[in-house]
């Protein structure tokens, strides 16, 4: 488990950790399941920024962009790179070989640039709504953590790798269906508990906070599954870029859902 922790933190964050001593498919699968916990530094930053916004120390739009900057820095913008590469690959034609070759290049084309701009604008717009209230900040953090479900979703057994090398080849098929289901259920339960705790803080009324938090988790997980399914259909399997893209799309879906929840569900 120590090696899995080291691999997860070293892969999904910019934090310096010792290299894992032993890496096999079991360690890789555990690292994918631990990915949501690697968001702790970014989550703490989002909470601090939410407090700053609620106290009136900074405009909501500025706080929203700062939250995305911190998250990109803490992840080395790895997932954003995956989103751009997948967008370029999928828009290059219907030949999987050509798409994978385009994704392998280091440059970013028009489709990749457009995907980055549109997703980041959507994220920023949602965070401007969410950060600044206790309910919105908690749901934003839930969306951030739930987005990392994409790692386990893309590494589930039965999902092939699109290449014979790279991160996708290493992690493909390392997470069992039971392990993935257990992770989703655990995240849903924890998120529901957090949503329920918002009522005394002037957040949601009664059970609506728990419902909203669960909806955010389900939105992120569903977006991950949809992205993975499309990539497998077009590319024949998953790659590291597919995992990064699924993560970013899941985050956007979770933040949109959280914004709708904050706006639509009754508050205390």
Helical residue percent band: over 70%
* Strand percentage: under 5%
Distance between the termini: 42 Å
Number of strands: 0
Count of individual helical segments: 13
- Whole-number radius of gyration? 18 Å
Rough shape? globular
* H-E order: HHHHHHHHHHHHH
Average pLDDT over all residues:
91
Instruction: Work out the oligomeric state of the chains in this entry.
Output: single chain
Structural class of the secondary elements?
mainly alpha
User: Which residues sit in consecutive blocks of at least 5 with pLDDT less than 50?
Assistant: none
For the sheet with most strands, the description reads: none
Question: What would you say this structure looks like, in words?
Answer:
It is a single chain. The chain contains 13 helices and no strands. About 50% of the residues are buried. The chain is mostly helical and about 270 residues long. The longest helix is centred in the C-terminal third of the chain and has 28 residues, at about 210-235. The termini are far apart. About 70% of the residues lie in helices and about 0% in strands.
Outline the secondary-structure elements:
Elements: H1 2-12, H2 25-34, H3 40-54, H4 60-74, H5 78-90, H6 96-104, H7 110-130, H8 134-147, H9 149-154, H10 167-171, H11 177-196, H12 208-235, H13 240-264
Helix pairs in contact: 1-2, 3-4, 3-8, 4-7, 5-6, 5-7, 5-13, 7-13, 8-11, 8-12, 8-13, 11-12, 12-13
In short:
It contains 13 helices and no strands. The chain has 268 residues and is mainly alpha-helical.
